[in-house]
From TrEMBL:
It is found in: Membrane. The lineage of its organism: Bacteria, Pseudomonadati, Pseudomonadota, Alphaproteobacteria, Iodidimonadales. Keywords: Membrane, Transmembrane, Transmembrane helix. It comes from Iodidimonas nitroreducens. The chain crosses the membrane at residues 15-36, 74-93, 99-119, 147-170. It is a multi-pass membrane protein. This is Cysteine biosynthesis protein. Its main location: membrane.
Length: 173
């Protein structure tokens, strides 16, 4: 039994099949676009601690992190960010598809969701070097507007070809 019932009118049936065939590649492209930040962040998160060390040593020598982030903590923060991005973007997929026809709704939703998540997690990656993980979360909440704007800029960088490959490094710096 076909998922799409036939109308009995040949040209309409062919048009419906053709349009349905466009849906699969479109959804695949949309999901790939949505998950790119998660994939890139999970790969680069292992190296971002070195970037933070270099930036702090060069620009903030007096404020350099008082605690080195253990490898398991760096891995956990990167995995948590990746999983959050994947989960929340997949949960929002029906809304993304609905907004796809508005012209700008999908972009606005993408930037809002990923701006919040990237800002939150990148802020926390640096904050845990200067505070306990519990206090880092409290600091993030106090600076949520700055964290969101930073995350929004990172999310925008993820949309620009070639620059998107450097977005995690630029964002953490």
């Amino acid at each position: 039994m076909p998922l799409i019932p036939e109308s009995g009118i040949d040209w309409i049936d062919k048009a419906v099949i053709w349009l349905a065939g466009l849906g699969v590649p479109l959804i695949f492209a949309l999901v790939t676009w949505l998950l790119f930040p998660a994939v890139m962040t999970s790969i680069t998160s292992l190296f971002l601690d070195d970037v933070v060390d270099a930036v702090e040593a060069l620009h903030y020598p007096d404020l350099a992190g008082w605690r080195a982030s253990p490898l398991h903590e760096v891995i956990w923060l990167g995995l948590r960010l990746s999983l959050l991005i994947v989960l929340i973007n997949l949960l929002a997929l029906p809304l993304y598809l609905t907004l796809l026809f508005t012209g700008f709704g999908t972009l606005a939703l993408y930037l809002a969701i990923n701006g919040y998540l990237l800002g939150r997690e990148y802020y926390e990656m640096v904050a845990v070097r200067h505070a306990t993980p519990k206090n880092a979360g409290h600091l993030r909440k106090q600076n949520r507007d700055k964290a969101f704007l930073g995350g929004l800029m990172i999310a925008l960088l993820f949309m620009i070809p070639v620059l998107n490959l450097m977005a995690p490094v630029i964002g953490i710096a």
